Amino acid sequence: MAVAVGHTESRPAARSQLTVLWESLDELGGGRLHRCVLAHHLADLQDDAADELAWDLRALAAASDGFGDAGFDVREFAASLQLNVADAYRRLGDVASARTHAALALAACDDLDDDGYGRMIRAGVARLAERIDAVDPARPRG
Predict the structure, then answer these.
(1) Do 77 and 45 share a structural domain?
(2) Judgement on whether residues 17 and 78 belong to the same structural domain of the protein
(3) Are 78 and 111 in contact (CB under 8 A)?
(4) What CA dihedral angle connects 42, 47, 51 and 52, to 10 degrees?
(5) Which residues, in sequence order, are bridge partners of residue 67?
(6) Which value, in Å, is the radius of gyration of the alpha carbons in the chain?
(7) Which of helix, strand or coil describes residue 67?
(8) pLDDT tens for residues 72-109?
């Protein structure tokens, strides 16, 4: 419900609702998957890029050990999580970190299926790489 509110009505209200849920996760027995998904949605509701990055990094940290406890394969989320972190770094002007996480996102795309979701994430990674190169063209390797 709070995610829908954030997309259709009030970002501050949705952010507040999800923050309350985040603060209750331990009491509710939320696992890494819950932390990852909730942090991912909270990142999308931030107005400030630094706050968004902090939530994106929480989502990435929650996913770093996998979701074995929930029966999900973290590889399904890795490219998207890395893409979000890379884009937040880009918007904050940290091109080196943006480039590092964009490369990790690209590598993680190998684990995506060739379906609508996989194509969407791959296209997002390609667009982000173009944006990073527009700000700071990649140095020739040699």
Answers:
(1) no
(2) no
(3) yes
(4) 50
(5) 72
(6) 16
(7) strand
(8) 677 778 999 999 999 999 999 999 999 999 999 999 99
Over residues 21-36, the mean pLDDT reads: 86
CA distances from 28 to 3, 21, 23, 24, 25 (A): 19, 9, 10, 6, 5
| Cβ neighbours of residue 72 closer than 8 Å, sequence gap 6 or more | 33
Q: Is the pTM of this model over 0.70?
A: yes
Q: Mark which of 66, 90, 114 sits at the end of a domain.
A: 66
pLDDT band at 21 (very low <50, low <70, confident <90, very high): very high
Tally of domains in the chain: 2
| Cα–Cα distance measured from residue 41 to residue 98, given in angstroms and rounded to the nearest whole number | 20
Any idea which residue has 């209750």 for tokens? Answer: 24
Query: What is the full DSSP assignment across 65-105?
Result: T-BTTTTB-THHHHHHHHHHHHHHHHHTT-HHHHHHHHHHH
Angle at the Cα of 106 from the Cα atoms of 100 and 112, rounded to 5 degrees: 145
Select from 66, 83, 107 the last residue of a domain.
Answer: 66
Average pLDDT over all residues of the chain: 87
Check residue 5 and give its pLDDT.
Answer: 44
What is the domain extent for residue 21? 1-66
Structure tokens at 61: 């940290």
